[in-house]
Design goal:
Blueprint lengths: L1 E2 L2 E2 L1 E3 L2 E2 L2 E2 L3 E3 L5 H20 L4 E2 L6 H4 L1 H9 L3 E2 L11 H14 L8 H14 L2 H9 L1 H10 L8
Parallel strand pairs: 7-8
Antiparallel strand pairs: 1-2, 3-6, 4-5
GO molecular function, one term: nucleic acid binding
Pfam families: DDE_3 (PF13358)
InterPro entries: RNaseH_sf, Tc1-like_DDE_dom
Length: 158
Amino acid sequence: MAFGGGSVMVWGAFRLHHRTPLFHVQGNLTGLRYRVEILRPLAVPTLQQMGPQAVYGQDDNTRPQRARVVNDFLQQSGVNRMEWPACSPDLSPIENLWDELDRKVRSNLPPPRDVQHLYQMLQAEWQALPQRIFTTLVNSMRTRCVECQNSQGGYTHY
């Protein structure tokens, strides 16, 4: 998320009744860092709590997320990975959350003083997002997929 004095990259994930902490990604995110700083401490324990049928859902198909070190780690951890088409924001409900988070932070007055303050605001707003938003987004997935299929991968209202 950008503001007048810089930007902050964050990672977060959610499922129907759970959200991970918001993680501040500092610097260049590599596959190794993604595995060590995000997957191992945040994503995999959550998936393992869900049981053997749990699936690591969506990601952005970025290089760090698709790196061999990440694929090997997920496989070794017994995590099933769902494949998603590249460049499919209509199928990615986290994009709706990022938009909501952006609106919430931008509505704060005064605006963030610096990058650290921006991250603190993001964390607070992430935790304050009502559960109904997460539930609505998860429950929208069937409709998103149907609309995407009906539009043959083209525009949907999401």
